Amino acid sequence: MLDGILIGLSTAFSFSNLLMVIGGCLIGTFIGMLPGLGPMSIISIMIPVAISIGDPSAALILLAGVYYGAIFGGSTSSILINAPGVASTVATSFDGYPLARQGKAGKALTVAAISSFCGGSIGAILLMIFAPALASVALLFHSAEYFALMVVGLSAIAAFAGTGQVVKALLMTVLGLIMATVGEGALFNMPRFTMGIMDLQSGFGFITLAMAMFALPEALYLVLDPGRSKTEGGSNEIKDLRITRAEAKSIAPVIGRQSIQGFLIGVLPGAGATIASFLGYAVERNIAPKEEQKEFGKGAIKGLAAPESANNAACTGSFVPLLTLGIPGSGTTAILLGALIALNVSPGPRLMVDEPEIFWAVIISMYVGNLILLVLNLPLIPYIAKVLAVPRNYLIPFIFFFTLMGAYIGQNNATELLILVGLGICATVLRFADYPLAPLLIGFILGSMLEDNFSRSMQLYDGLGFLMERPMTIGLLGLAALLVILPSYRARRARLRQRGVADGD
Amino acid sequence: MALDRWIALVILMISLAYGYTAFFTMDEGLPPFMKFNAIWPSTFPKGLSVMAVICALIILLSPQKADAGPKAGDIDYRRLLDYKLGQATALLAMMVIYALALRPVGFLISTVAFLVISAMILGERKLHILIPIAVLAAGVVWYLVQQVLGIYLRPLPFFMGTGG
């Protein structure tokens, strides 16, 4: 591990990679602050830039910096104008905005920055401890277990993403898998489902799909509902950034607890930073003394520290399944996985052995990123906050333009832009009907790997025999079935109970 | 019928067409040696089509729930006309026009036109600010993409040279 850390230090602290972290954090903070643009949209837009860098370590460091920056920027807009740029910072606004309204915006931003820093750093330490252990276990896996593990990951994502409507999420996952089969796959070297269209020979572009699923619907929502981008009404004055010793003492245990809890939630596939932040807030409110409980929602600094440390730790935690198993735990890490594949890097247990400089550089750059967010961004906050004043009439055309450019640069093909618009309209309609979009993208990204492992197992066992002969595979597939069946059963039981109450039972 | 069921119906149709291809037409052109393999190019798609059909049918046939309306902060598609639908449609049309014009008209002119017209669609009228910003942005992005990232972008119309 020490060797790995040294490799990571030398890679992450190279001049160009330091620039990547700083640049990524600043870009992420700026764009993350814009209401309506989440980390998935921002990372989608940044991927063509990252891929064109060519060096996988630098690209991943840049994208991880953008990810952290976006979460930090989301907190800033939550606190200053009660408009969370990111879903995982919604809980931040519960107490952050009331604090800003009381004229304590500076204090709120400091608490958020310190909590984020601690959450991210504790998460990175836990990642350093857990990831190598998990990777060494995963090295025992064969293609059959990988296939089963991916099915578990996809089921978990469907179960979490579609809370209350697992079937919708499952349908989206399968649709993503179906889209992954379009084009000429590496496995059979023959075109499938291209309908004779030349541009579909290489399949759907991952960047185009990511943009169409996240960036374009967000931008269209901003157009349709101008209220989403309104920035009036808040207090943008930031004066005193200091917090007292007593305040620091009171939030320290909250940060410690929520960093660990957030990290563990982040490790679970499908859970992610949003669930971690809400759960962190709820837990701290419940365990707080009665007197303090009344303060939650009115400007309690504990209520601000809890979601902020939890969401950053969860972001770090979501890198565990990505780096060790090659399975993305969230939509954002799915996009990062796609970027890695585009850079010819295969995340998974072999990553630590074959390309330790990438693995460790990412972990070390997480510390650096968190430190930069604290040291660089905090004093810059009053200036960065000015981005909130960009008029909607200028902001929206630029979001559309960068979405188009991202798809164009990714494929260097104008037809890709038409596919982007078509898929973007479909994604917006799906969002209207509450179909979750992250499972579709994750299904698409995992599709070829899933088929590859399935086919290899079929060839090795000359059929479906691997399902019976490998106990770990059966166990994992059983777990996947449970993950899908249990939430649906619970939802059905809750519905029946509700109907019973309504009928007067 | 609610929108989510219409969507499930469309996906069902797509899955049926996908399944028909996987089960009936895909294997026709398969080389004989591949037919001895345990796995064919159509094996995985066959399973996917069955799963997609089952999921779509569950959504279509499950009892209709009471409509809870849109979530807070979400758009209510039943009242779509209350939103800025015209602006959204016009911007989508602009994106299509931009995609079609990018190669023949060149990056610089089509980008400036896209940014200016899109902002005007949204209600911007201060052209003396808008046009310089659009020209500057198009120029900076072209320079970054072409010169820094090394991705070819024809800057001017086709009859004015390649700009490479």
TrEMBL record, chain A:
Keyword Transmembrane helix included in the entry's annotation: yes
Keywords per UniProt: Membrane, Transmembrane, Transmembrane helix
Residue stretches making up the DUF112 domain: 18-441
Segments passing through the bilayer: 12-33, 45-67, 79-97, 109-134, 146-162, 169-190, 202-224, 263-283, 327-346, 358-381, 393-410, 470-489
Pfam families: TctA
Protein name: Putative integral membrane protein
UniProtKB/TrEMBL annotation, chain B:
Transmembrane segments: 7-26, 38-61, 105-122, 129-153
Lineage of origin: Bacteria, Pseudomonadati, Pseudomonadota, Alphaproteobacteria, Rhodobacterales
Segments forming domain DUF1468: 6-153
Source species, domain of life: Bacteria
Alphabetized UniProt keyword annotations: Membrane, Transmembrane, Transmembrane helix
Keyword Coiled coil belongs to the record: no
Coiled coil (residue ranges): none
Protein name as it appears in the record: Tripartite tricarboxylate transporter TctB family protein
